[in-house]
Every structure is written in C-alpha cells, then in structure tokens.
Write a structure and sequence with these properties.
Length: 232
C-alpha cells in the first residue's frame, strides 16, 4: 500500500492535478460550485494517449469584489484510498477595462488511509487574463447579466517541504513549476473552462514509473483539463 501512495502522489502532485481555481474572483458575496476533469497526458500501452481522469469538486465564495476563497475535494484520489483536498484564495491585484491579473496562494494536503502517510504542499498560482467578448442578456426573472469570454496565461508553483522523496531518495527539486494557458466561456450563471498546463518543462521525464506525454521531448509533461462553474 505504501507503493500505491507513492504512485498516487507522483501522478497527482507531479502531474499538477487540477486547473487554476478562480482566475477572476467572484462578485462580492457570490457563491460558486465547481467541478473539473483531467490531468497529465499519459501513454497507456494498448489503449491510447489520454489525460489522467482526475476529478475535483469545489466551492468558492466572494469575500470582497477582488477576493475569493475556495476549497476542493478530489474524488478520484479517494477511490484509491488517498484523501486529498486543497484550499486557498484568489486576489485580483490589478485590472483595467479589459484585462486583469490575480494571484492564488493556497495549500494541498494528501493523506493515505492505508499507511497513514501524509503530505502538505504550499501552492502559489498567478494569472493574467484578457476579456475579448461581452454581451448583455437577461434571465427568466428579467435580471440583466453580462457574458464575458476571456483568455488567460499564468503559472502554478508547488513547493516541496520534505527533504526526501519516493523510496527515501533525496529531494532534488523543492519547486514544481508549471506554466498554463486557458480559456473561459461565460454563459449566464455557468462558466466553462479549458486549460493546458506545461508540467515541469525543465525536469527530465525519463526513468520514472509514469510515461508522460510532453511537447518538450525528454523533459516535462502536458496536462489537459475541463472544468465547469455554477455561480449562484
């Protein structure tokens, strides 16, 4: 079971197992439910090249106009006996009429119920977004609303706190850095998001358990995610 924990943490941690959370903060006092599917692209022998079917279920709340807090659970990891959740906030520190930038500090926690192993990874994401389409409509109740599609680019940082890694080897990389690009479609209360991550493009992907697909050859990997947000 300890080997299973190492395998799961290798896939979900090194694979940057979730897309960006709330690139744009929610409105003040607004609630949101989120769900995502996807992960690192893997070569499955005899099957196909597919993203890890990792899932998340989460909640967000707009504390202020430019500040949102959130938390997420990982059902796929739980199926394998690893309890995982993350929590953090998104703060928009700059914006103008069509663009903005945000940072999202948080943490990720994993616990293996079989071997009672646990791990904590602080995280810091940053994103720059640009709106490119806007329209006004109305709900069934007659309330006007706006739909704004936007592109974003940014990066995700996971910080390794432990000095050792799988099988007691020395931890050589304390920073897991992964750039990302994404696009969000806003449709009233619903948001639909697509994101691609370039996973640790500076690290070798050779001689490891997982056969990652990478646009950088023998380094890094590629992740693909789809997520849905319902804003109340």
């Amino acid at each position: 079971m300890k080997q299973l924990f190492y395998l799961i943490t290798s896939i979900f941690v090194l694979g940057a197992c979730a897309p960006s959370h709330f690139v744009k903060p929610l409105e003040h006092k607004q609630h949101a439910l989120t769900a995502s599917l996807g992960g690192a692209m893997l070569k499955v022998p005899g099957v196909a090249t597919i993203p890890i079917p990792n899932t998340t279920l989460g909640y967000g709340y707009g504390v202020k106009q430019d500040l949102t807090i959130y938390g997420n659970l990982y059902p796929t990891a739980a199926v394998f006996g690893v309890f995982q959740f993350d929590a953090g906030c998104t703060w928009r520190f700059w914006q103008n009429e069509n663009m903005g930038a945000s940072v999202s500090p948080g943490f990720n926690f994993l616990f293996d119920r079989f071997e009672k192993n646990a791990g904590l990874w602080p995280q810091l994401d940053a994103n720059f977004y640009m709106n490119y389409f806007e329209r006004t409509g109305s709900t069934k109740k007659g309330t006007d609303h706006q739909n704004v599609n936007y592109f974003y680019v940014g990066f995700s940082n996971w910080f390794q706190l432990k000095s050792t890694m799988t099988l007691g080897l020395k931890q050589e990389n304390r920073l897991v850095f992964s750039p990302q690009v994404g696009h969000t479609f806003e449709r009233g209360h619903w948001n639909y998001n697509l994101e691609v991550k370039f996973l640790t493009p500076y690290l070798s992907n050779q001689n490891i358990i997982i056969d990652y697909v990478s646009p950088f050859g023998k380094r890094g990997g590629l992740g693909a995610f789809f997520s849905v947000t319902y804003r109340l």
